[in-house]
Amino acid sequence: DVVMTQSPLSLPVTLGQSASISCNSSQSLVYSDGNIYLNWFQQRPGQSPRRLLYKVSNRDSGVPDRFSGSGSGTDFTLKISRVESEDVGVYYCMQGIHWPWTFGQGTKVEIK
Amino acid sequence: EVQVMESGGDWVQPGGSLRLSCATSGFTFKNYAIHWVRQSPGKGLEYVSAISGNGGTTNYVDSVKGRFTISRDNPKNTLYLQMSSLRPEDSGVYYCRAVAETASLEFWGQGTLVTVSS
Predict the structure, then answer these.
(1) Taking a C-beta distance cutoff of 8 angstroms, is the pair A65, A59 a contact?
(2) CA-wise closest residue to A90 among A37, A19, A1
(3) Can you list the residues of chain B whose pLDDT is less than 50?
(4) Best residue of A23, A48, A51 to probe chain B, by most B CBs closer than 10 Å
(5) How many CA atoms lie within 13 A of B53 on its CB side?
(6) What is the pLDDT of residue A90?
(7) Residue B41: per-residue pLDDT
(8) Mutation test of the interface with chain B: which of A40, A47, A101, A105, choosing the one with the most B Cβ atoms within 10 A?
(9) Minimal Cα–Cα distance from A86 to chain B, Å?
């Protein structure tokens, strides 16, 4: 199975500051159609996961533009600009190209 | 309004069976692949199974092959997961995730808890 490795696993952030989460995959996530099937999810406390970004950098409906994604091949980054209190939760990357699709371990974002 | 609602989770002894359901509304069900994702404290988020919009393609993680069966009833907008020979490591919250064929939209349910323990 493809292993998704996130860092850091815990990320204390000051309100209004930026935060970055890295995700590395053990295999390339570039599909034959040229797309890269890397998603980012947010899971707030007590809630179901929610997708924020798909195909590396496409924001889902309703996701603030403070969230952005970048990367290619096997290395990806989620950036949260101007962190707000509602951003507290666990963030996961997920690859959707090699079955079984796999998630990273999760990065817990908390406010300092 | 989109609704995705799982049901059927319960406590069951090892070796037992359960059938999970995922009832949906508010979107064109047949145009969405549906996935089961489980979450347990020891293993985080894990894909269990997936089925294409027309039901013609199914996938299972190796650990559940031969024990779980995913199916869908498109006229009823409902997805099922028949689970048998359950093991303690199958315990967790099972989420239903619907993903549009274009991948541009996706919806999650609130999850249903499965506990396998003697």
Answers:
(1) yes
(2) A19
(3) none
(4) A48
(5) 11
(6) 96
(7) 78
(8) A101
(9) 19
- As a residue count, chain A comes to 112
Are residues B109 and B95 in contact, defined by beta-carbon separation less than 8 angstroms? yes
What percent of chain A stands above pLDDT 90? 98
The amino acid at B114: V
Cα A54 to chain centroid, rounded: 9
Strands A38-43 and A19-25 come out as unpaired
Give the least confident one: A23-27, A30-34, A73-77, A99-103: A30-34
Per the omega criterion (within 30 degrees of 0), is the bond before B88 cis? no
Question: Under an 8 A CB cutoff, do B105 and A61 touch?
Answer: yes
DSSP result, A25-40: ESS--B-TTS-B-EEE
Helix (H, G, I), strand (E, B) or coil at B77: coil
Given this model, what pLDDT does residue B73 score?
Answer: 97
Q: Whole-angstrom distance between the N-terminal and C-terminal Cα of chain A? A: 35
pLDDT at residue A40 is higher than 90: yes
Backbone angles phi, psi at B64, to 5 degrees: -115, -5
| A32–B contact, CB cutoff 8 A | no
Q: For residues B3 and B25, give the distance between their C-alpha atoms in angstroms, rounded to a whole number.
A: 5
pLDDT tens digits, A41-76: 999 999 999 999 999 999 999 999 999 999 998 999
* Residue where the block lists tokens 């919250």: B93
pLDDT for position A16: 97
Cα A53 from Cα A42, distance rounded (Å):
10
Whether residue A103 has pLDDT greater than 80: yes
